[in-house]
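Aggregate trends can hide what the representation actually does to any particular protein. In the encoding step, the backbone of a single protein was reduced to a row of integers, each denoting a local shape. The record that follows shows the chain in one-letter code together with its fold in token form.

***
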Amino acid sequence: MDNVDPGGDQADDRALLHAPPHPQAWQDRLIGLEASRPYWSAMDLDAYQRGALRTAAPRDKKNELLHLVLGLVGESGEVAEKFKKWVRDLDSDESRIDRADIAKELGDVLWYVAVLADYLDLSLNDIAATNLAKLASRQGRGVLGGSGDNR
């Protein structure tokens, strides 16, 4: 099964590239949505996922699942490495964080998350909405802190 949507929705992809850079701008874009809709239902991470798949290897490539999992771990490690050097070399001075460099690494993490999710037939929109709903539930029950998946 080919996991790349060659047609894709290019308008959605272009809109994603020109998304507002600030959270307030996102809120401004959401005006007009039904007030009863949960705030996490307006996401369209699936457009990003479709775009990421354009550069992904085919699902049937040997060891592709393992490649994706190890790639995600490796790229996450690169984010941690950047911060390790920030602590070691820059005395944890937040004004000296190279945000552009961190953004590149986070983009790589996001790519692996998107492609791995697709490999497992999971939608990024669904993952994100489920995660925010879980956190909202925990917050409502006063159990955001602590440990364990089933709080």
